Fold this sequence. Notes:
This protein has helices at 3-16, 23-30, 32-52, 55-75, 80-93. The chain has a domain at 31-90: MazG-like (Helix Hairpins, Orthogonal Bundle). It is mainly α. This is Phosphoribosyl-ATP pyrophosphatase. InterPro entries: HisE, PRib-ATP_PPHydrolase-like.
Amino acid sequence: MNAFEQMEAVITQRRAQPMEGSYTCYLFDKGLDKILKKVGEECAETIIAAKNGDKTELIGEINDVFYHMMVMMNECGVTLEDVCKEMDVRAAKIGNLKQFHVSDHNT
């Protein structure tokens, strides 16, 4: 089991068996709006960390995004397997693009 699968298992367990003091349970209790707010905040913090050039900070923020995205996925009924299947479909299309459309952002 990889780290993403472990994280998904813990999130699923927290939802099924709430544990007092659990941040994951707190997010589920507050609902989708709170979860989405946290996803947005963590994305913004990740962008700032990337801009600041601190690799350690960036790695931490990326992990925060992954965690909050996985809580959102669970809340919305999306599994890691669902996402990986779509990734496989998209990976099979790599290199099949016949014409690349370029937008002229000056007009």
